[in-house]
Design a protein that fits this description.
- By secondary structure, the chain is α/β, with parallel strands linked by helices.
- It folds into three domains: 10-51, no CATH class; 63-89, no CATH class; 91-258, Glycogen Phosphorylase B (Rossmann fold).
- It contains ten helices and eleven strands.
- It has helices at residues 10-16, 33-42, 64-67, 107-121, 140-148, 167-173, 191-198, 227-238, 247-257, 263-279; strands at 27-30, 48-51, 69-71, 75-78, 84-86, 92-97, 129-134, 155-158, 176-179, 203-206, 221-224.
- The protein has a six-stranded parallel β-sheet, with helices on both faces. A three-stranded antiparallel β-sheet has the order 3-4-5.
- The radius of gyration is 32 Å and the shape is globular.
- The model is unreliable at 1-17 (pLDDT under 50).
- It is a single-pass membrane protein.
- Pathway: Protein modification; protein glycosylation.
- This is Chitobiosyldiphosphodolichol beta-mannosyltransferase.
Amino acid sequence: AEVNPVVPHSSNIIAEWDFSSFLGVFNHFQVSFFLFKKFTKILYCNCIIWLLITSFCSHSFPDVTKEYIELTAFTEHNSQTGAVTRSAGRPALLISSTSWTEDEDFSVLLQALEEYEKFVEAGHKLPSLVCVITGKGPQKDYYKKLIDSKEFHHIKICTPWLEAEDYPVLLGSADLGVCLHKSSSGLDLPMKVVDMFGCCLPVCAIHFQCLHELVKHEENGLIFKDSKELSEQLKLLLSDFPSDQGKLGIFRKNLRESGQQRWDENWDHNVLPLIKEHCD
């Protein structure tokens, strides 16, 4: 261990002194057992030797359990009340999921994030971003290298693989979803958006032929055509963050009030009657 050069070790100081200088002193204070024993052997005169056990300064190490709260990037936990609240200056949590295939061009998102970074640097009142991109696939390593090459100061990107039970928890915790799925046929709908809507998470989704059947532009999300439009949408939706009074909060409110059918309800209403009809 290194010793602070400004404060020499006490034993070094003692070694340089003539112990006779301590004779005649009634009280001696020592900071270690080593010095305590040394003085009891050398100073056999009639004096009192006090042993001061080395300890930390209380003002340097305050009792955090009484005055402080536990913090994460997004939440505050008050150790006295047990309450967990969202931090006032927290970053916005952006979520996207992918199978990392050619159906999804993630350079669109990366370019949009670069533009968002420029907005923040230019002084726009916008939160920092934590962008989570989940999934596995053949192009993941390629995009991870691309992500690592970026020098963001207000954006953090991570690419985890989540267990099935963790994925809906993440969706429910996010502030905004991004979908880059472009149907190769132009006929199918992205199930990831269905998942996001199931957690009442508004979505920015890239345009393709039948997307409007699922994403209602300006109602439960926004539809974009390129990275520039996406960056402008991120700026628009997060300009009031973390207030729920802006457009993002309105989209979430619309999703909650839309009366979406759950999977089992949809099955029971549309599919089960047909099966029963043909089985009777």
